[in-house]
Amino acid sequence: MAEGKKRTLLDWWCGKPWLYATYALGVAMLVALVLNWESWSVPQRLMGILCVLLPLHVFEELEWPDGFQFMMNKVIQKSDNPLAYPENRLTDMITNFGAEILFIAMLVFTPIAGNMFVVFMAFFGIGETIAHTVFTAASLRCYRAAGMRAPYTPGLATAWCTLLPVGIASLHWLITSGTFAVGDLWGILFVMFLIGFMIRLPFIISYKIKSTRFAYDSMGYFAKFEK
């Protein structure tokens, strides 16, 4: 194990278990979505769909083909140890498992929050797709000399094919339902919370500590360009 420390429950959880728990939550939400489709409002349906799709997105990024974290560390954040920080197993657990829990909680409160959460879904789905497209363009520039030609990085497919449609559907609902109010823009605060406290803050702390304790052991999709 990295840094020769004794394995703890946190080390175990930050391996594969949190991923399996995230997938299990995705399956549970799929069942809930199917069973409640007729009774749920459109905003609830959209939020339920997002709860199902996030685990798929995580699977593409971190399991198959894997390598999103290596790309983020090396290409985007210029880390001197891209397998270890700032993105690592701990920060990914906080960000992704935390996001799944957050989305499920938001689904529960969607009948109260209404279009606030629809605004969140519109920004999240479209913003995530734009971000992955930018990451892919940066990766192509970085690895062009190593033979990278396909405009693809882990997470791009599920962003474009699943998260973007949810974002567009959410935006369409806001425009056509006739229920949008200026107060619904408070949903942007949830986007800022997700970015600031569940993504950026763990990265900032991880980069300051520069620990290899939760390092990944594979470059995934990018291993072929690092030879």
Our estimate of the beta-strand percent is under 5%
By secondary-structure content and strand pairing, the structural class works out as mainly alpha
Q: Helical content, roughly?
A: 55-70%
Uncertain segments are none
Span of the ends, CA to CA: 24 Å
**The biggest beta sheet, please?**
none
Number of helices: 8
Number of strands: 0
* H and E string: HHHHHHHH
Question: What is the averaged pLDDT score?
Answer: 96
Radius of gyration: 18 Å
How would you describe the shape? globular
Structure explained in plain terms:
The chain crosses the membrane at residues 20-37, 93-112, 118-140, 152-173, 185-205. Pfam families: HXXEE (PF13787). The chain is built from 8 helices and no strands. The chain has 227 residues and is an all-alpha fold. Helix 3 runs antiparallel to helix 5. The protein is globular and about 55 Å long. The two termini are 24 Å apart.
Topology:
Blueprint: H1 9-13, H2 17-36, H3 42-62, H4 68-76, H5 89-113, H6 115-143, H7 156-176, H8 187-209
Helix pairs in contact: 2-3, 2-5, 3-5, 3-6, 3-7, 4-6, 5-8, 6-7, 6-8
For the structure shown, list the relevant keywords:
0% strand, mainly alpha
Question: What's the gist of this structure?
Answer:
This protein is an all-alpha fold. The chain has helices at residues 9-13, 17-36, 42-62, 68-76, 89-113, 115-143, 156-176, 187-209. Helices cover 67% and strands 0% of the residues.
